[in-house]
Amino acid sequence: MIRAMGRAFDQMARKWMPDPMLFAILLTFITYLLGVFLTKSGPFQMIQHWYKGFWELLSFAMQMCLILVTGHALATSPLVRRVIQYLAEIPKKQAGAIFLVGLTAAIASWINWGLGIIVGALMAREVGRSAELRGIPVHYPLLGAAGYAGFLTWHGGLSASAPLLVATENHFLVNEIGIIPSSQTLFSPMNIIISIVLILLVPLICILMAPRNESEVERITDISPDLVEMKISETVATDQMVLADKIENSKIISGIIGLGGMIYVVWYFFTQGFKLDLNIVNFTFLFLGILFQRTPINYIRATSEGARACAGIIVQFPFYAGIMGMMKYSGLVTIISGWFVAISNEVTYPVFAFLSAGLVNLFVPSGGGQWAIQGPIMVDAAKAMNFDINKAIMAVAYGDEWTNMLQPFWALALLGITKLKAREIVGYTMVVMVVSAVVFILGLILLPT
């Protein structure tokens, strides 16, 4: 059944799923029309809301570009590449390859969402490459889907936006709900059980969707033959080096600046504990990459190669920020959330909170941004029904990560690294979305926080 569903959804996605850029533009049109007809904002006011939000993700877009570029440079360094190649050579069959990618991506995403994005992408690419070199037929789009589907665990993990925010002093809802420690949200029995189930379920679902006939398998070379080729850094003979060449190939320079950065990283973790955010992840990747690439020119070449994959992020993030602006400043999020709240009761509230968050996430694909907009509405509703606030928070968190399996916003970095198209993976991740909905809903209804 899962395989048939995967085949059907894959065919549908390949036929109907546009390029992520066009997906963002279509969502822009839909949001604009909804705002005009459902809110008090007029046609020109919606355009003003659009522009007001258009540039609100610039710093975040830069962070995403950096995680892609620095992660690529680190992964292509000789030492890390050998480690990845070792892991990639473990699977002997297609099922093992898919399971390895899905499992590592899910675990990495639970640890940190930024780490999960880059680990899932790099593992998908390297496992596909290794399988091809060893003559193992592996459906490469499904490897990419497994790498992205692992992202389904992030908002129940250590970098979850909403649960960490409400555990912070002076957060914007502190007067309504107080400070809620992560022991009551992230480390509640409900979330631990759901997270473990998802970490195991995601790769298993992907395995069940794998094509049985070798004729149906799309190898990595069918997508992009150059993904299999090893890139060899150009070297200059020592006796032919001029001063500029010697500086570019100086291991001393890389060592000094790399160690300087790592001194701060060690101090950070020693004083802050295992507290990951995009800034420290990027900083760590950057200076480890400089050290592991060994010379400045090697690092420059590695980052130049990785930067080619950033085009989608650079252009599309402003459009999603514009969509968020229209949703937020027009009050459209309040209206959509209100619909679900209006039909909820004490029993169905967590389910409708989850579904409403999933719908809003299609237009506001940002965990922290979505909680800032939707959180007050869901908290007020939970208090009015005398419903468990902790479970309400996690219901919104689960909904936020759930529809990422349909929304290609977070897949942009993976698509750049793997050279896959959104339509080649979304059909499979939609199946993961459908099956995981059962886990989320049953967990919200039956498990205690």
TrEMBL record:
Keyword Transmembrane helix on entry: yes
Transmembrane segments: 21-38, 58-76, 97-124, 192-210, 252-270, 276-292, 313-341, 347-364, 425-447
Annotated keywords: Membrane, Transmembrane, Transmembrane helix
Record keyword Membrane present: yes
PANTHER family the UniProt entry points to: SHORT-CHAIN FATTY ACID TRANSPORTER-RELATED
InterPro entries associated with the record: SCFA_transpt_AtoE
This protein's name: Short-chain fatty acids transporter
Organism of provenance: Desulfosoma caldarium
One Gene Ontology term, aspect cellular component: plasma membrane
